[in-house]
Amino acid sequence: MRDKPKVITCGCRFNRYESAEIKERIGADIDKPVVVINSCAVTAKSEAKSRHAVRRAIRENPDASIVVSGCWAELDPRAVGEIEGVDLVLGNEEKFSTGSFLSKKNSAKTYTGGVNSADGFLETAVGFMESRTAAYLKIQNGCDETCSFCVVRLARGKSRSASPEFVKERTEKLIKDGAKEIVLTGINVGQYGNDLSGDIDLANVLNLVAENKKARFRLSSINPNEVTKELLEVMAENKNICRYLHIPLQAGSDRVLKMMRRPYSASDYRKKIELASYHLPNLALGCDIIAGFPGESDEEFNNSLQMFEELPFTYAHVFAYSAREQADSSKMGGQVSSAVKKERAKLLKLMATAKNLKFRESLIGSDVVVLVEAGEDDSGVLRGKSDSFITVEFRGGREMKGSLANVRLKEVTATGMLGELK
Questions:
Q1: Is the pTM of this model over 0.85?
Q2: pLDDT, tens digit (0-9, with 9 covering 90-100), for 342-396
Q3: Where is the domain boundary, 242, 266, 286?
Q4: Domain boundary among 59, 81, 116
Q5: Do both 357 and 374 map to the same domain?
Q6: Range of the domain at 206
Q7: Which residues sit opposite 85 in a β-bridge?
């Protein structure tokens, strides 16, 4: 009996979801061990990690077919293919047919570019369960934005959406399999429905799945121009939708946002946050922000820092700008030094830590619903995530693991909160 295919994931949770799809689709007719490295290339650091994972897989699996797929393979197939020991290089569309490409009886080892002609969402029977009770459901792929710093649109192709029927069907299946929380995810999930006929958008499909009250639902990252009044009303009306939004800011300077080719101004962004806060009191609000974009002056960075301080963010993903060769921003003048980028990122991270602590302190005495994810020892301490994405610990029976528990928050810890079961 041959070994089951092994899939190694680099990068984000979206890649982890797709790794489950790859493994499901490889098939049983391959006559030797297979190791697939599903790579990432969103930053120089993530590309380096992917390269390291490939070399390690080759070293540790000398008898296996080594397949490298994903964003790095799509963007730089020549560099990937030149690594001694790599047998097959597959792009982001081709990787879902890994078994078929391994079975081909020819000398070609590189198959990429399918994302450029992909004209529909690939619907699969698989769903990614991050734990026994938390699941991710991919409802969209690709991106129609043209941000100057980003290579994801080149690696993923144009925006493609799953049908509402598929989304509902997969949701029901995940809940039947035990999911208590489902994250609707995509490369640019706010563009859901743009390619579908009829009056279909993210607000519609979120309202559709939220009809099932046996689980709660969470949205992954969504751009500010896609935060609509209709979406916020759906979130406000359905108590099983998490009061949680991650809305990338990237910069607080209009000139920098324009150079980034972001489709909003700083004022536009503020108005969206005000709208979201009005419809969803006590909203947990996250953002992405880039420090040291080419040409960013000290004054423009201070504008970003001030805007970040003034808006009610509860956490942030802070990135020091990373030039990618195929991104237009890598060719811009005014590249900021590594030391300055590092210092700016440090200031933003310090502020993000302080804002997160302030948010957690504001929750003391409030009641939250916690998805219980851990409770392995005999201490009686359970741990899980609230709908505002706070890690909460409280005492309770181990039989509660995997359930949704009502907890009153009592005090903050270094990174989360303590509570007691109601």
A1: yes
A2: 999 999 999 999 999 999 999 999 999 999 987 666 678 999 999 999 999 999 9
A3: 242
A4: 116
A5: no
A6: 120-242
A7: none
